[in-house]
From TrEMBL:
<protein>
    <recommendedName>
        <fullName>2-oxoisovalerate dehydrogenase subunit alpha</fullName>
        <ecNumber>1.2.4.4</ecNumber>
    </recommendedName>
</protein>
<dbReference type="InterPro" id="IPR001017">
    <property type="entry name" value="DH_E1"/>
</dbReference>
<dbReference type="Pfam" id="PF00676">
    <property type="entry name" value="E1_dh"/>
</dbReference>
<dbReference type="GO" id="GO:0009083">
    <property type="term" value="P:branched-chain amino acid catabolic process"/>
</dbReference>
<dbReference type="GO" id="GO:0000287">
    <property type="term" value="F:magnesium ion binding"/>
</dbReference>
<keyword id="KW-0560">Oxidoreductase</keyword>
<feature type="domain" description="Dehydrogenase E1 component">
    <location>
        <begin position="43"/>
        <end position="309"/>
    </location>
</feature>
<dbReference type="GO" id="GO:0003863">
    <property type="term" value="F:branched-chain 2-oxo acid dehydrogenase activity"/>
</dbReference>
<dbReference type="InterPro" id="IPR050771">
    <property type="entry name" value="Alpha-ketoacid_DH_E1_comp"/>
</dbReference>
<dbReference type="InterPro" id="IPR029061">
    <property type="entry name" value="THDP-binding"/>
</dbReference>
<comment type="similarity">
    <text>Belongs to the BCKDHA family.</text>
</comment>
<comment type="function">
    <text>The branched-chain alpha-keto dehydrogenase complex catalyzes the overall conversion of alpha-keto acids to acyl-CoA and CO(2). It contains multiple copies of three enzymatic components: branched-chain alpha-keto acid decarboxylase (E1), lipoamide acyltransferase (E2) and lipoamide dehydrogenase (E3).</text>
</comment>
<keyword id="KW-0786">Thiamine pyrophosphate</keyword>
Length: 368
C-alpha cells in the first residue's frame, strides 16, 4: 500500500520453502510445533474446501442454489486461523468462511441448505460456537463486539473465569469501509473486550480495488483505533495459524482487542452472479495465481516427504465427500417457513406462537 505499511509475516515462500522472514521471528516457536500431520490436515481441509466450492458452483449453475459465494484463494487464511482457536472461542463469520466452517465441524450441507432456501440457519451456533453467516456487510463485527462485551461482563461478575474464551470475527476489506466496522472497533477498544478482527484483504470489494478503499493497510488503520494491528501473508497457512494463535492468546488473557490483516486474493468471482474479468486484468490474475496457497502447501509437504500417492488419495476422498454433499443437498426436504419463529427467543413467546399459528393456518388454506 505505502512505505509505512508493515511487511506481511511469512514462513512459506510461494515455492513452499520454509524461510521465515525476520518479522516472523516472534511466532517461530508455534510454527516449529506444527508437525507434518498437522500440515497434512490443513492441506486436506483446504483442498476439500476448494472441491466443495466447485461442487457448490455447479449446483448453483444448475438452478439448485439461489447463490454461491466461493472462497477460492482464501483457504490458507481461513483454515490456518480456524485451527488456532480454542474449542471455547466463538466465531462470527461473514458469508465466505467455508474453510472456517469445516474446521469447526459444520456439515457443508447445512451451509448449502441456507443458500438453497431450505432453512433460515442450518446449524446450532451455541453448540458449534460458529455463528450464522451474515450477508449484511460488517453487521457481524457489531455482533462479535457485543458478544465479547458479554464475556467481559460475565468475567467481572464471576460467572466465567478469565482467559478461557474470546471472540474472532471474520470481515472483508470491503466491509471495513462500512460504518458498522468502525463502530465495532471503537466499542471494542473503549470497553477493552476480548475480540480479534480477522480482516481477509482479498483485494476487491466486489469490483472496487483495495487501493480505492484505503490509503494504508488495515493493520495500520487499526492503530488509529488504539488497537494493535498485525499483517500476514494470507496465502501462507503457517503464518495464518501461528499469528492467530499468538494474538488470540493475548486477547483471551486480557490484552484487549486486536486486528489481523491477511493479505490474500479472491481467485474466483465475488459471487456466482459476478464476472471478475470485467474489472481485473489477466496479468493481475496470473500474478496472484502463482501465489495460490494450495500449491504452496503441497510443495512444502513434498519437501517433507509426502508422496503423490497421498495427494491422489486426498483428491479421491474429496471427490467422494463432494458427491455425498451433492446427493444430500438434492434430497433436502421442502422448507418449512413457520420454523423462522422457533429461535427468535430462547423461551416460548406468546407473540411468536400466535404468529406461527397464523402462518401455519394461512399456508394450509392453499392446500387442495
Amino acid at each position: 500500500m505505502n512505505e509505512h505499511d508493515p511487511a506481511p509475516i511469512q514462513f512459506l515462500t510461494p515455492q513452499g520453502l520454509y524461510q521465515p522472514k525476520a518479522v516472523a521471528e516472534p511466532y517461530a516457536t508455534d510454527a516449529e510445533t506444527l508437525s507434518t500431520d498437522d500440515l497434512l490436515r490443513f492441506y486436506r481441509e483446504m483442498t476439500l474446501t476448494r472441491r466443495l466450492d466447485d461442487a457448490s458452483t455447479a449446483l448453483q449453475r444448475q438452478g439448485e442454489l439461489a447463490l454461491w459465494i466461493p472462497s477460492y484463494g482464501q483457504e490458507a487464511a481461513q483454515t490456518g486461523s480456524a485451527h488456532a482457536l480454542s474449542p471455547l472461542d466463538t466465531v462470527f463469520p461473514s458469508y465466505r468462511e467455508h474453510g472456517v466452517a469445516l474446521a469447526r465441524g459444520i456439515d457443508f450441507v447445512d451451509i448449502l441448505a441456507v443458500l438453497r432456501g431450505n432453512t433460515f440457519s442450518g446449524w446450532d451456533p451455541e453448540q458449534t460456537r460458529f455463528r450464522l453467516y451474515t450477508i449484511v456487510l460488517a453487521a457481524q463485527a457489531l455482533h462479535a463486539t457485543g458478544y465479547a462485551m458479554g464475556i467481559s461482563l460475565d468475567q467481572q461478575a464471576g460467572r466465567k473465569p478469565e482467559g478461557e474464551e474470546a471472540v474472532i470475527v471474520y470481515i472483508g476489506d470491503g466491509a471495513m469501509s462500512e460504518g458498522d466496522a468502525s463502530e465495532a472497533l471503537i466499542f471494542a477498544r473503549t470497553y477493552n473486550v476480548p475480540v480479534l478482527f480477522f480482516v481477509q484483504n482479498n483485494q476487491y470489494a466486489i469490483s472496487t480495488p483495495v487501493a480505492t478503499q484505503t490509503a494504508v493497510s488495515y493493520a495500520n488503520r487499526a492503530e488509529g483505533f488504539g488497537i494493535p494491528g498485525y499483517r500476514i501473508d494470507g496465502n501462507d497457512v503457517i503464518a495464518s495459524y501461528t499469528v492467530t494463535k499468538h494474538v488470540m492468546n493475548q486477547v483471551r488473557n486480557g490484552a484487549g482487542p486486536a486486528l489481523i490483516e491477511a493479505v490474500t486474493y479472491r481467485l474466483g468471482p465475488h459471487t456466482s452472479s459476478d464476472d471478475p474479468t470485467k474489472y481485473r486484468s489477466a496479468e493481475e490474475y496470473e500474478h496472484w495465481q502463482k501465489l495460490d496457497p494450495i500449491p504452496r502447501l503441497r510443495a512444502h509437504l513434498q519437501y517433507r516427504g509426502i508422496t503423490d500417492d497421498m495427494f491422489d488419495q486426498i483428491d479421491v476422498d474429496n471427490n467422494t465427500h463432494a458427491i455425498d454433499v451433492r446427493q444430500r443437498v438434492l434430497s433436502l426436504p421442502d422448507p418449512r417457513p413457520a420454523e423462522m419463529f422457533d429461535h427468535v427467543y430462547s423461551d416460548p413467546h406468546p407473540t411468536m406462537i400466535e404468529q406461527k399459528d397464523w402462518l401455519t393456518h394461512y399456508e394450509a388454506s392453499f392446500e387442495p
